[in-house]
Amino acid sequence: MIGAGHYVALSVILLALGVIGVMVRRNLITVLMALELVFNAANLNLIAFSDRLGDLSGQVLAIFVITIAAAEAAIGLGLIIALMRLKDTVTLDDADEMRG
Amino acid sequence: MMEFLTAHFATILFYILAGLTVAGGIGVISFKNPVHSALSLLGTFLMVAALFVLQHAEFLAAVQVLVYAGGILVLFLFVIMLVNIKRMQPEQVFLSRVAPLAVAVGITLGAIIAGLLLAGSLGHPAAAPAALQSVQGQHVGNTEAVGWVLYTKYLVPFEIVSVVLLVAMVGAIIFGRKDPTLEGRGGRMEP
Questions:
Q1: Is residue B126 in a domain?
Q2: Residue A69 included in any domain
Q3: What is the ipTM of this complex?
Q4: Strand partners, B134
Q5: Which residue in A33, A41, B44, B127 could disulfide with A11, CB within 3.0 to 4.6 Å?
Q6: Burial of B141 (0-12, 13-18, 19+ CB in 10 A)
Q7: B178: helix, coil or strand?
Q8: A83 touches chain B (CB under 8 A)
Q9: Chain B contact present for A98, CB below 8 A
Q10: How far is B14 from chain A (nearest CA, A)?
Q11: pLDDT attached to residue B191
């Protein structure tokens, strides 16, 4: 039988992949996609422990996470469109005005 | 052979789905073409949805497919098409600069994963799924049970989240709209 540890391990791997993607990729769209991986890792944890504990709160919390992920994607992609209008680029290194 | 398969069906299914999920995730962060990354992300979403079904969260699986695969991913593809990939410069990966840090983080995460797998049956050995499908002791579907909890115990967070979603929607529209005051200055914001 699969224990919750397996699900948490899968979640850690997904989280690591997401963080690596955010850190290594320079394309803003791909960075946002890597962020979605992180959201999915969190959801996987919530669902695994909801099942183990027989508590529906985890599933309801996962619905909230999905909602926030949708809002984040909409805002992030809106920002990409705005950046595209302003500087004609989607590369993170070209948007470094705030660098000290 | 057949007995082994039926006895360990959930376990085998988990390993297949987990492998495909990780493969999809690796694809997302390693494909050069954003369209390929997006399609890889679609695979990851669907595999995670299947894992939800395996965990007695059928409603969540449907939401995952509808919202993620149907909504967010289409939004990503729209933006990729809008931005025109041909104009994207090939990105240079700056892995060498953060290599020592990456090795340290990798070793730490690897240790965590190994510990988790060794711990094996962390937590309880799977509670009866009945608790996830019942309302006040009465057996109903998972959707009805989730709805009951969402509209009673978590009603206030639910309303707050709906306001957050509205704000995000308005914000996205404002970001995406053509600003006439920017056009006059050659599309550039004043510093």
A1: no
A2: yes
A3: 0.91
A4: B139
A5: A41
A6: middle
A7: coil
A8: no
A9: no
A10: 8
A11: 47
Supply the range of the domain harboring residue A45: 26-91
Burial (CB count <10 Å: 0-12, 13-18, 19+), residue B70: exposed
**A31 touches B: beta carbon within 8 Å:** no
What total number of domains does chain B contain?
Answer: 2
Q: Which of B120, B153, B188 is facing A86, going by the closest CB pair? A: B188
Which one has a higher pLDDT value, A99 or B24?
A: B24
Q: Do A24 and B59 touch (CB under 8 A)?
A: no
Angstrom distances, CA of residue B177 to CA of B79, B172, B183, B187: 14, 9, 12, 13
Domain of residue B157 covers 131-178
Q: Which residue of B has its CA nearest to A22?
A: B29
The structure tokens 């422990």 sit at A49
Query: Considering its fold, how many domains does chain A have in total?
Result: 1
Q: Do A33 and B94 touch (CB under 8 A)?
A: no
Alpha helices in chain B (DSSP H): 2-7, 9-30, 34-54, 58-63, 73-83, 99-119, 142-152, 155-176, 180-183
Most confident listed range (A64-78, B87-101, B139-153): A64-78
Cα separation, A29 vs A52, whole angstroms: 36
Over 90: is that where the pLDDT of A22 sits?
A: no
A23–B contact, CB cutoff 8 A: yes
Q: Which two tokens stand for residue B129?
A: 């799924």
CATH of the domain at A56: 1.10.287.3510
**Which residue in B has a C-alpha nearest to residue A75's C-alpha?**
B172
How does the average pLDDT of chain B come out, rounded? Answer: 81
Helix/strand/coil for A67: helix
The answer to whether A90 contacts B38, with C-beta atoms less than 8 Å apart, is no
- Please give the mean pLDDT across all residues of chain A: 87
Instruction: Using alpha carbons, select from A65, A67, A3, A59 the residue that is nearest to residue B142.
Output: A59
**Residue B27: inside a domain:** yes
Specify the pTM: 0.84
